[in-house]
Amino acid sequence: MTAVKGIPIFPTLVLSIFIFSGIFAGFLAPYDPVENHINEALSPPAWQEGGTTKYLLGTDHLGRDMLSRLLYGATVSLRVGFIVVFVSGGTGAILAILAGFIGGWVGMAIMRLTDMMLSIPYLLIAIVMAVLMGPSVNNVIIILVVLGWTQYTRVLHSEVLRIKEADFIQLAKVAGCSKMRIMLRHVFPNIVNTLIILGTLNLGQVIIMEASLSFIGAGVPPIFPAWGRMLADGRQYITFAWWLCVWPGLAILLVVLSCNLLGDWIRVRFDPKFRQI
Amino acid sequence: MKSKTILEVKDLKTYFFTRHGVAKAVDGVSFRLKEGEALGLVGESGCGKSITCLSILKLVPQPAGRIVGGKIIFDGVDLLSNSEKEMRDIRGRRISMILQDPMTSLNPLFTIGEQVAEPIIIHQKIDRARAWEKAKEMLTLVKIQSPEVRMMEYPHQMSGGMRQRIVGAMVLSCQPDLLIADEPTTSLDVTIQAQFLRLLKEIQERSNLSMIVVTHDFGIVAKVCDRLAVMYAGKIVEYAGIRELFNHPTHPYTKALMDSIPKMDVKVDRLYSIEGQPPDLRNLPPGCNFVPRCSHVMEICEKEPPGESVVGDGHTVSCWLSCPKWN
């Protein structure tokens, strides 16, 4: 538990770099991410044989600079990832508390809706929505939120049911707390831990799902450089041009890993039992 | 001592509507509690003690449970006709409750100080600093050592006995008129039990607090209570002053309960226990509920439920054996 005291350096650093490069991609990137240099397609990273310092991390099958695409991709992927996690996590938590704490027909309705949403194949909805609204980044966000809140609700609902039975909730009622106050002050803080863990796990999934949506043409339009999309595009060249998949894969890995580490640290910070160690 | 009636429960009926039928958890309970008096509510598990208490606060487990009849008159007002908002104002400020398990009675995420101050902030509308001061006073009252340090700490740093005293401070912080203690010492060890009861009694006497103590332990009753109500299957079967009841237990159930307490001066091989199980609350016998386990069953007992008969000063019994008309 030594890592509890200060903010963990590695994940904070990694996330700051990615967020920074996402915001300032326009200044940092050496090239336009969609600019083709078809004569220099599939050129390897600078340090490998045949690579040039013009393209530090190499180029893809259309001769687009990998570094520039990665930097711009951070904008899309992180935006999609964080917005989806926050919105679906928030919605999921609110609905879980309402369903678990109020119960009755409200709870019944919410939970049956959750079950229903969980049982619909998400690709189907995604395709339908993409057809209706046309593929765009916002469309991806909407699809992933609409499909994503259910897993939060499912897990948190059972947490709420457990906490609801605790005597301190009963005592809060005896003390004359309103339902609102009990939900905000006594139920919500007790599910935050689970919410954070779910969120950090979900972030990785969201970035991958964005890739698969883009892959079937229902997600980010091909011209946008998103990490998931880049990963999917590079798949067919992997035997002779490893850098097409490895760079976006590494970026996703670092972001997800950092979020998990940071989430774990926040969880421990929030737990009074560990706070004083 | 003036003897104003603070709480009067009249023919209270709380039923649970389940898919297997209606469980009559509380079926026509009546009692009266005077200011500064402590009433003990004794009976087996599932006889309706806790539900009686929750009914007084109108916190019967939803959605199955419902109060279907009777009156609960607290300080001249019938609580059953109060709105939820009016009840919230009464809960914590005028009627408070201690629950059985101190280990889960405190929210693990907030400091002791914040939790003791919470009811004060809700009900007295005073600022945090003053509420904090008041919370410190309360913790001193329940004999927590160095309260200002403890208030910054979290529940997991306290022992069970301390937690129960902290809960005590919490529920008494708004000076309620009535305290309901639902088996307050069940999960404490014996030495801590005695300590906690002494403290409770002390506070009660000092602030003229009325109390309802739910328990199945006659030892606690003898220590703390002035009057005693024995419950069986949703009904009060015997109701008397504490001395009167211990000296002249009249209902066969009360007698049997008393017989099953180990005695210091009598040597027995096996402790007496009441045969059989309490009846299914969804399917009560037509006559007296105690018939299947009673050793004095008469013909009438199986046909009609017994009414209340007065057998002494403030001593009532619901049993055909004591009914003057019948004898």
Furnish the topology, listing elements before pairings.
The complex is a heterodimer of chains A (277) and B (327).
Chain A: H1 9-23, H2 25-28, H3 66-102, H4 104-119, H5 122-133, H6 137-164, H7 167-174, H8 179-215, H9 227-234, H10 243-270, H11 272-275
Chain B: E1 5-18, E2 21-34, E3 38-42, H1 49-56, E4 65-74, E5 77-78, H2 84-90, E6 95-98, H3 112-124, H4 128-141, H5 147-150, H6 160-172, E7 178-182, H7 190-207, E8 210-215, H8 218-224, E9 227-232, E10 235-241, H9 242-247, H10 252-259, E11 309-312, E12 315-317
Parallel strand pairs in B: 3-8, 3-9, 6-7, 7-8
Antiparallel strand pairs in B: 1-2, 1-4, 4-5, 9-10, 10-12, 11-12
Question: What quaternary form is this?
Answer: heterodimer
How many helices of chain B? 10
Rg of chain A, nearest Å: 22 Å
The overall pLDDT of chain B, averaged over residues, is 88
- Secondary structure class of chain B reads alpha/beta
Name of the CATH superfamily of chain A: MetI-like
Unreliable stretches of chain A (pLDDT < 50, length at least 5) are none
Biggest interface: A-B, 21 and 31 residues
Please compute the radius of gyration of chain B using only Cα atoms.
21 Å
What fraction of the residues of chain A are assigned to beta strands by DSSP?
under 5%
Straight-line distance between termini of chain A: 8 Å
How does the overall form of chain B come out from the CA principal axes?
globular
CATH superfamily of the largest domain in chain B: P-loop containing nucleotide triphosphate hydrolases
Uncertain runs of chain B: none
In which range does the helix fraction of chain A lie? over 70%
Helix content of chain B: 25-40%
Percent of sequence in beta strands of chain B? 15-25%
Query: At CATH's second level, what is the architecture of the largest domain in chain B?
Result: 3-Layer(aba) Sandwich
Count of DSSP-assigned helices of chain A: 11
State the domain count of chain A: 1
